[in-house]
Structure formats: C-alpha cells, structure tokens
Amino acid sequence: MCGIVGYVGDQNATPIVLNGLRRLEYRGYDSAGIAVLSNGNVEVRREAGKLSKLESLVQNQPIQGTIGIGHTRWATHGEPTARNAHPHIGNTGKVVVVHNGIVENYLELKADLEAEGVEFHTETDTEVIVHLIEQFLSQEEPLEEAVRKALKYLKGAHGIVVLSTMAPDTIIAARIGNAGGVVIGLGDGENFIASDIPAILDHTRRMLFLESHQMAVVSKSSIQIQSLDGKKVHLEEHNIGWDPIAAEKGEYRHFMQKEIHEQVRSLTDTLAGRVDFDDGRIHLPQLNLSPELAGRIKKIILTACGTAAHAGMVGKILLERIARIPAQLEIASEFRYEDPIVDSDTVVLAISQSGETADTLAAMEEGRKRGAVLWSIVNAIGSQAMRVADGYISMQSGPEIGVASTKAFSAPLVDLYMLAVLLADLRGVINERQRHQLVSDLRLVPDLVGKCLDREKDVLQAAREMRYIRNILYLGRGIQMPIAHEGALKLKEISYIHAESYPAGEMKHGPIALIDRDMPVLALAPRDQWYEKMISQIEQARARGGNVIVVATEGDQRAAELADHVFWVPETPWLLSPVVTVIPLQMFAYHIAALKGLDVDQPRNLAKSVTVE
To answer: Residue 35: is its pLDDT beyond 70?
Structure first.
C-alpha cells in the first residue's frame, strides 16, 4: 500500500511532493506527511486523515527546501494517527525515512534497540529502520553505507526512501522483495522518486524501475544504481506515454465513474496492434509464445486476487473452451501455501492491475521455483509482475485511480480471450473459419460496451430505489458466474452493503432460504446456453417475494415480465459477454455508493495496490 514521493533539484520541493502525494492518495489515506531539508535541518509535517489535512497544516506551518520526501499511509502497525504517520525521524534529528511494506522482524529489532537505550516514539514497524540507520551513522559510516547495512537486518518486503542532513544533496531509495514499486524519474538538473508513475508524470516521462535488492543514490545531477551488496547496476530507461491529464476526473464526479466510461477507449487500446482483422489473427509479441511452447503446454494455472481473480475465472472458461487446455484458477494468497502440481509444461499466469500485488508476486515466485513458465497480464508498465515474467500482456488501460477496479477488469477479459484464440491457433485446435469468426467478434466489443454505458439512466433509477437495501444476492451460471462474484464484490467494496454471490444452480441448495421481500436478487440472464436455467431461478425467487433485478439481452420480454428492474445489454457473442454484462453491475455499485454520499474512490479500509500480505 502507501504512496511515496521524493524530489531533489533546484525547485521548492514542498509543492512537488504534495502534488505527487495527491496523485497517490488512492494507495493509502489514513495519514500523510512530508519532510524537507531546510537550512541544514530536517523539517517534518505529519497529520492524520486525508492529504487535505496535511496540506492545511503545511499552509499554516510552511516549509521550504530543494530536497524532500513525502508519504501517504495505509496503516499496518499502529493506529492512523499523526504520531504514527510517516516520515519517521530519528532521535538525533539527522535521518528521516518513509517506508512501504512490513518489517516482519520489527519486534525483535525493537527489543534489541531498546536494550541499547534507543527510545521509540511510535507504534509502527517503520521506526526501527530509522534507528538502525542512525546507529550505523554514529559509527561514522557514510549515509549510503549506513542504509545498506541497516537494510540487511530487515525481514520482509520493502520500499524505503531515506533523507539525511549527513548527505544534504542526496536521497537514497531501496527496494527489497515485492512491497511495491520504486520508480526513479529522470529530469534536467532534478530527479524524482515515487512508488508509482502518476506521482511524477507531470514532471518527467523518463523512468527507471528498481528491482528487488537494489538501491538508488539520487542527487539533482546524478543517479547511481547499486545492489545491496554495493555492486554497480545498469537499469534500462523506460519512456512512459501516459498523459497526465488522464489522471484527472475531468467532467466526472469520481474517478470510478470516469474509469467506467473510459472502458470503450481502454478496450479499443487493448486491441490496438494485437488484432489483425483482415488476416483473422492475434499478435501478442511480448508473450514470447512460440509454436513449440504452445504445443507442449499441458496446464495453465491462473493466479490472482480479488477482482483480478474473477477475471481469471472467466479466463479458465475461455482457455478450456477455445484453446482446449486444462486451466484452473488459484487464489494467489493460497497458492504459495499449497503443494501445487506444477512442472515445466505448466504455465502460471498472473493477473494484476498494479503488477505489484504481494500475494500474486509470491505465487509467481512459487511457480518459478517449481519450473513453470511465468506469464502475466498487468496494467502498470514496468511493474514487478511484468519484469519477472517470461512473457506478458499489457492491459493498455492507462492509469486507474479509483480503488475499486473497473477498466482493469474488463481489459484482461479481452486479453484472456485473445490469448485463448492465439493458443488455439498455434495448437491447431480451431480451423481457419473458426479463427476468423473468433477474431472478428472482437471488433464488436468497444461498441457493445458503449451501448451499455448509454443505458446508465436505467441503472441510476434502480440504484435510487434500492440504495437503502442491506443485503443482496447475485446469481449467475457458466461464464456469468464470475460476473456475479465481481458484481457483488463491487457493491461491497464501495457501498458497504452485504452482497453474496452464488452459482444459480446452487440456490436451492441453501441460499434460497434467505429470499424474501428484504433480500433482493440480481440475476445475470443474457440469452446464452444457460438462459432457460436462469429464467427458472428467477421464477423461484419471484415466487418467494424477492425483488428481482435481471441483466438481460435487449428485447427479452420474458425477462422483463419477471423483473422489477432490467439492466439491458446488447446481444453479444457468449464468449465475450462478460465484458458487456459487468458494465451495468459496475454502474449499479457506483450509483448506490454515490447516492449514499460515500467516498467512492477511496472506500474505507481499502487501498489500490495491496503490497503487503
């Protein structure tokens, strides 16, 4: 979680750092802080709550200097108070640290430090880092070496940035494991540090991405990349094409609403350069998929968390139906604690919006140890999941700021479809006519999604009538079952309404006992091979007094007669239908939360990038 920003140059660091933190507030908003070197001293401002409170504090107590670091926090140790907020300053006042991750052995380190007379002032695990660095500085080590030695004591995964009066023109940044990204932005007579690209995109598009166990020594005129063992490292420079304006709300009330409506563009972009409609072929060059590899794959394990896992559930169906490859979905947080049957003929395919999800990265590592081929589908360019994979597919969705993922759910559905078609082609399990039809169907997707968005008023009306519900049951079958799961998750995430999702065929095996006039039912019933079965489930819910919402294909009079509300979707090829049926569920969750006056983009207890276990 957490957002980190740093600046060194000739400009006043304070507004640059605060603006960067604003771009990263989606990563954590329990508290925030900033530290600036000013007239030879470390000046720190910290405040509990959202960034606006810190901005007010800085306005009342200004600080100015040309080098500074800042942090927005998602609490893991200690309450979200000003005292526990980052940056943390040492007892000498010479060292200040911001940190993303969990120090797994902090209790042992704290006990050792306290035994040596070190006084602690917070409840956080991060504070041990600043005290360790100060101890090595007291032994007359240079800052760079003191940081290096301190980091070797830490267990867990971390992103760490250090500022000190002992090196007043230098910021040190380090990455250990998969606690989240550390991005170095390259400027002209100035340089930047951040935990994610949007924080510094206003200033530069030239980026370096630290790998695990690497450290950057950053001044305004130079950047030195080293391993934690002190060896010089060369990193490839990346040029990021995102437009900073894309991270602004524009005409929309919330980022989530904007991102729902951006799906026509993001799906167009994810197809761009990958689909040859004339030849009827798919091209995924970054996947590094050869005919030989395609032919020897015996199993694909899709691994992900949350919304990405629901995309993986759809992917399992697509891979088996189109490519005829056995596939299974493994929740990433469980996969590494199992004893999975994986070998060199197995692909472990990770799906992650951020590419920095700790559990997903750990699942990839488990797959690597067992000899699997690693693939990833990610949105964040240069992220860890992209870099460690043998091949990847970029979602090409652009920045997603709302914590509840929308466009980074629909894009991987299309990516997985394209992957399935490509594998089927390379393995020879579809003929030319079938391949052309599957590829041709892709051209329909952006327009079909646009037609769903055009019906937002119908969804808003249902949301107005149902915003006070306390429970709801989502039902789906076949390829729509993962969409039921995703719809329920979206409602839970941002409206705090209890929502359960079930395969509709399981309703009579227990959940039907819940249905009465106070338990609405949302049923996914487009015209597909499960349609008649879904209509039967809807009739059973109606017979028990349930208030029913149906996602139905346009013109379906039977569904309209049974439903209290209908979310109409256009007729869609069934293998691509999840991309369409999820749209009204995203809008439904959004409008209920917005009508309740909730913080849609930053729901309680959640953060965008889950970089700790």
So the answer is: yes
